[in-house]
Amino acid sequence: MSAAVLQEDFINRLREHFDVLSAYVLAQLNAGEELTINVAAEESLFVRFNSNRVRQNTDVEQIGISLRLQSNRRTVEKSRSLGGNMDADRLALMHLLAQCRDEVAVLPLDPNQVPIENNGTSSEEFRGALLAAQDVVAAVVAPAAGCDLAGLYASGIVIRGNCNSKGQRHWFATETFFLDYSIYKGPQAAKGCYAGARWSAVEWASNLARTRTLLALLAKPQQDVKPGAYRTYLAPRAFSDLLGMLGWGALSASAWKQGRSPFKKLAENEARLSPLLSIDENFALGLTPRFNDLGEVSATRLPLIEKGELKTLLVSSRTAKEYGLMANGASEGEGPRAMDVRAGTLAEQDVLQALGTGLYLSNLHYLNWSDPVSARVTGMTRYACFWVEEGEIVGPIRDLRWDESLYSALGSKLMALTSHAEIDPAVDTYYRRALGGSRTPGALIDDFSFTL
Amino acid sequence: MPDTVIPHEQALHHALQFSDWAAIRYSSETATHRAVRNDKPESNESSLEEGAMCEVLVDGHFGYAATADLSLSGLQRAFDRAITTTRATSQHKVHSFTPGQRPRTTGVYRSARRRDLDALSVVEITDCLMAASRAMSLSDRLVNRSARAMLVQTQIDYFSSNGSETRQSFDMLDITLAATAAEGLESQTRSWSRTGQFGSEAFDRAAFRENAERVAREALDLLAADNCPSGHMDLVLMPDQMMLQIHESIGHPLELDRILGDERNYAGWSFVKQEDFGRLQYGSSLMNVAFDPGRAHELASYDFDDGGNRATREMLIENGVLRRGLGSLESQVRSGLPGVANFRSASWNRAPIDRMANINLEPGTSSLDELIAQVEHGVLMRTNRSWSIDDYRNKFQFGCEHGQLIENGVLGKLVRNPNYRGVTVDFWNRLAGVGSAAETHGTSFCGKGEPSQIIRVGHASPPCLFRDVDVFGGQS
């Protein structure tokens, strides 16, 4: 039996399982009870590489289900893993529902409760053509022979489903892989990521060749760059790293209202960003379902920042209820799920010339707010980063610490965005394989501050 | 705690037909999250994660398959998947292992506690959180008053084909109170947390109220405070910031899997080289650091790691000299270095990797007043707020919620947005004083690994004095 058939079985099997189980549980509700059910499932293969060899391989099959019971203006949510056996899972869910009822009877009123509604129905399934488990390692390591390669290959099916007692029903299944990797020459390294739905040996070889070219540039003499302010080019992946901070409370309406948003000045029209910068939530990228955990469906395109001006924060229904705002399909965490940064006009071949003398950064590392009120972020340079003089790469740098306000880096210091943009797929694997990602161009920033 | 008995003997018998060694790690974890914000319920959620990791040794390579189907047929299918994949990948294994990396062990561990966590009712917890939220209500400028509690009960049972059988049960608490004061465009947050292996006796109503009032008052005070000054000065770090300093600049760089390069593509490598053990003067002679899995109530206490290795206290750094790394039996045989029992996984669906557990800085002889008295010009910082360090664990920058200037040996004016930066070995060699009274802290959210895992760690430390550190404040 081929791997493709087994994987297709998992989608069909899960869908039927979810349909039967959810119908059964919903039929048990008493008058005055409303219920939302979410399922997150995956059938994944993880292979971890070190030195172009296998460190660990793990197969994971998991189904997680959650019940959110709303009754008498109280809310409780309980979730659990399921084994996939219908009788046992039915019993487990009835036990979970009973626990929800016990709790909801003694909890205080939830004044910010969002009434359960029918937000419609959707169904999307994206089939792929993945490597069979036994073929993965040879396919990865053979083209990388001679490379010191470290990284993670992850593949398989990821499923999200949602339904509620008002008749709402959403289903999303996708079959994808990613190979998030880096290659090394001693302590120097270059980073790459090959992701998609259909493994292609030609595409993998081409992706690896590009990363090898970057690694070869690191053979130039190492440059000792002192802390200071330098014109800096952030390649798309590095710019994606920087903009990832917008998901740490900056664009969250609840964080703004609770005094925690680094973009408070932007939200209150006390500051604006560069007119070069426009950011949307763009679900047309196809990286993640449009529905959230309440089954609310976001607009396909939601402008967040238009020419430097905040158009809207991400507002969940709960935040909207609490603060009298308009919800816009955001998840409860109110972070971007499909961030799309509009490309600029700087052609890729002109980047070094436009940079002139300064730093070319391919990746950033370990970002955090260092002064939230000023939207100041600190982080490190990582992987292939170079000192450039008069439009020519002189050599790699030692890692530098930087500390810069987003009001500056995305404001008056932002000189240009590139005309090419790259998809940065989510490769997070905490608890389960993530969905989502972003599309970002490269960014040329003046006087970026390096501190250590 | 569910009373699940899995058919481990039959499943292991099945696996041994096609593998050289096999094990099952059953794990069940109930985590309850309750939160109150501004005197209203914010969330009441709980999760049950229950499943088994089936592990095999095939042709010298360990491989894994995870399933939540705990029937015999479910476990057998998981073993079949593990064996098939592991046989294919073993031709490219990074090292040829033996069952010697999985010693036979038996035993039982149970968290120190006086009363089980589930002795607490929903009403008791909610009332406690609500009272804390109300106690923070000192001013309209306190725009966010949050009280959260996470109660976790975990059972981990491990069975192997060479006779290991360990059963460990954990009761854990993670409580956080936080107050945010805001005025105009400025805001400041102050928090208090209690984290560790406790029973319900630790749900202390008086402590909730007392700390709630304190953090609210301090958030308001910070709103009116000046920014921390910039410059090189002496630095006293309190235990709730030492926790982070130890975690990032001792714990992670000493993990042997990082030193061996397994983690290079994700969290990063380490500046520590294999030849540094026994030689590197990591810090001043006042620096003594232990791996201590036996400290009662610390968050990452346990008797056995997830490879069945019995956990014992070991010194990592003695008198400032690096002695031992944080590496499991697999990393020890790969590197030829001594390690510890720290082969740990986040849950049933992740394979174990080298993780720090309880990493503690041993107490010295100075009182806090004596440390402060040694400072002519400096700052005392409390409670971590911001953290960032490079992928070799060298260049760090950390920020705290609360700072106080020290002038001529006297603690004085409050300052906000205190930050400091440095380079690991240089920084630890600036250690000039170690307090005598340790506090125990920890976090439930240390991330690492591919696939990624969140794990619990504990860090006990006294206050410490560092000389001539690069300190700076905020821009606002």
Average pLDDT value of chain A? 96
Q: Which ranges of chain B are low-confidence, i.e. pLDDT below 50, for 5 or more consecutive residues?
A: none
Order of helices and strands of chain A: HEEEHEHEEEHEHHHEEEHEHEEEEHEE
**What is the residue-averaged pLDDT of chain B?**
97
Largest sheet of chain A: 11 strands, mixed
List the quaternary state of the chains: heterodimer
Number of strands of chain B: 23
SS field, number of helical segments of chain B: 9
Number of helices of chain A: 10
Gyration radius of chain A (Cα, Å) is 24 Å
Number of beta-strand segments of chain A: 18
Largest interface: A-B, 93 and 90 residues
Strand percent estimate of chain A? 35-45%
Strand content of chain B: 35-45%
Keywords:
heterodimer; A: 452 residues; alpha+beta; PmbA/TldD fold; eleven-stranded mixed β-sheet; seven-stranded mixed β-sheet; globular; disordered N terminus; B: 476 residues; five-stranded mixed β-barrel; 9 helices; 23 strands; 41% strand
Summarize the structure.
The complex is a heterodimer of chains A (452) and B (476). With 452 residues, chain A is of the alpha+beta class.
Question: What's the topology here?
Answer:
The complex is a heterodimer of chains A (452) and B (476).
Chain A: H1 3-27, E1 33-50, E2 53-71, E3 74-82, H2 86-104, E4 121-126, H3 136-141, E5 148-164, E6 169-185, E7 188-196, H4 201-217, E8 228-234, H5 236-243, H6 253-257, H7 264-267, E9 279-282, E10 301-306, E11 309-310, H8 317-323, E12 338-341, H9 351-355, E13 358-371, E14 376-389, E15 392-396, E16 401-405, H10 406-412, E17 414-425, E18 437-450
Parallel strand pairs in A: 4-6, 8-13, 12-18
Antiparallel strand pairs in A: 1-2, 1-5, 2-3, 5-6, 6-7, 8-18, 9-10, 9-12, 10-11, 13-14, 14-15, 14-16, 17-18
Helix pairs in contact in A: 1-2
Chain B: H1 8-16, E1 21-37, E2 40-58, E3 61-67, H2 72-89, E4 106-110, H3 122-135, E5 142-160, E6 165-183, E7 186-196, H4 205-224, E8 226-227, E9 231-237, H5 239-251, H6 256-259, E10 289-291, E11 314-318, E12 321-322, H7 329-335, E13 343-344, E14 353-354, E15 359-361, H8 368-373, E16 377-389, E17 395-407, E18 410-416, E19 419-423, H9 424-428, E20 431-434, E21 439-448, E22 453-461, E23 464-472
Parallel strand pairs in B: 4-6, 8-18, 9-16
Antiparallel strand pairs in B: 1-2, 1-5, 2-3, 5-6, 6-7, 9-23, 10-11, 10-15, 11-12, 13-14, 16-17, 17-18, 17-19, 19-23, 20-23, 21-22
